[in-house]
Predict the structure.
Amino acid sequence: MFNNKIPNYKTQAAFYTLIELYNLASTPDPESIISNKITILEHLTTADIKKEKVREDIIEEFKQEDKDIRILAYRTVLEKFNDKYDSLNNHQKAILKELINSIDNTPRLKEFYLSKSQEIKNELISLNKSTKDQVTKIKIDEIISLIKPLDKNHRVNDNNLIDLLQYCDLLNELETANA
């Protein structure tokens, strides 16, 4: 048992100690709390730095490769991406394309999100008028009420984009059902 090493033992012990300190009935030692929090923070910050360094090394190594190898790697990544997302409909593919093209341009992505969400909302409203089933109409009304524009300070995140993809899938199902 003593021959086995536990990775990140110090961090795990600090985390366990913090949990136990907060569960004590008596007042915990402030020095112990601070030292354990510092241990956890050091672990979190150095882990991010190590990941970023590895990523930079991989990118630098990739840049030094022969042009043919880079093209082959790009083609392989593209094929895997296309295979994984082949089942998406055209609206969903357009959303992913815009995400890829404007990943570093947040104002453009936010503008796209706002216009696309409004477009989906309008399509849902028009589809709701042509739906005959009353229960489905109520559910569509609920979904329409969930689609709200982002605040000025809010950034587009993964959950917003996933919502858009799911709304597009819903639109596709409703169009198929009403056809």
Remarks:
- Residues 73 and 79 are 10 Å apart (CA to CA).
- Helices lie at 9-23, 30-64, 67-84, 90-101, 106-130, 134-146, 158-178.
- The mean pLDDT is 84.
